[in-house]
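Example A, followed by Example B.
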Amino acid sequence: MHLSLPKLTAFPAHHPLLDQSLTVLREYLPSPAPLLGAVDQRIPMPVKQLAAEAPLNRLFARAIAEGEFDDFEGRKIRLELNEGHPGITLGFWSGRLRVVDGSGEAIIRGSLSAFRTLAERRQDPDQLFFQRRLVIEGDTELGLALKNLLDGLEWTVSFRTTLFPNS
């Protein structure tokens, strides 16, 4: 005897109910920043460099080759989540973006969602700063120069997650 179960249908990837539910969860779940900060402190610098440098240099290879990052030679900028953790300090030396230890001359701070919005280019970067979702501290001229450079480059990053991969 063969039993046949009814076929379950999954929500489409962009179903309104699913989108609303995820929005509510993002709004009311606690921030992952403290957990990410604890994990970040335990990851050795060489692992961070291995994980971040190659993808960043591939992503911006054309701009680096065209000299777009030359004004950042020897400079350090820190990207940081609110409340000071976790973060990453980036520098540019000898034609390569580098992950380095320590603070930056400029700090760009914001929520995880603000950085994601910036990376995915879903909103004008100026709006993120005017709305205070992203804040520049320290050498604001350096931070604004990076923001303007990134805004003027052609690049794409996607953090799309699929809850229902077969839909």
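Example B, a separate protein, is given below in the same form.
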Amino acid sequence: MKPFVQIATRPEDDVALTERAAVLDFAGLAEEELLWARLDREPFPDLAMDEISGIILCGSPFTASDPIEDKSDAQLRAEKEIDRVLDAVFAHDVPFLGACYGIGTLGTHIGARIDRTYGEPLGAVEVSLTDAGREDPLVREARLEDTFTGLVGHKEAVHTLPEHAVTLATGRTSPVQMFRVGTRQYATQFHPELDVPSIIERARAYRDHGYFSPDEMDDIFTSLQHVDADQPPRLLRAFATLFAR
């Protein structure tokens, strides 16, 4: 099997390693089947697009819609590299799955309006498939139910998609929870790489980054303990299964 590539943009080594472990676990991939590209500090691997099965891009402390003058050198470097990779993704029709920050970067690349109108604090939300979502090959492979629970925590979101993109799942407070563009390029607002224990761990690492009020952290964690969010991770396994080559 040709390897998949996981793009990471988290500068914190411990959080980045935990994220990688989760993707390996939920996707059902071995270490050698998932290359790791930490684009906040190094270029994308020197690989031809026909040498990989697909690309996965997860969350980040970066916010794609921030003004350029507010972005760090690491973020500007990462986003320039992501933009170059996405050009190649569409040129060669490479499977792509972006989550959270991935929806912001993919959305920006295709001309979506990304802003802070539909940001959601850390927590669990109800996600509902659209008619197009119920017929989508990746969603069907993942066997997602018509309505399921997703874990979120984001400052920005898709406000408006261009006409050539398809909304696959929606939510009450963030209207675009998942979309497809092209033939097999996807993004989700919710986190398919997180379960409840891991989102709590992630929240502890980013408690002062503005995703929620630190004063409310214990209450949020208590409410999450009663949440069952086992469906979104199925997308990672489905992505790896459907597009492995």
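On Example B: The longest strand covers residues 120-129.
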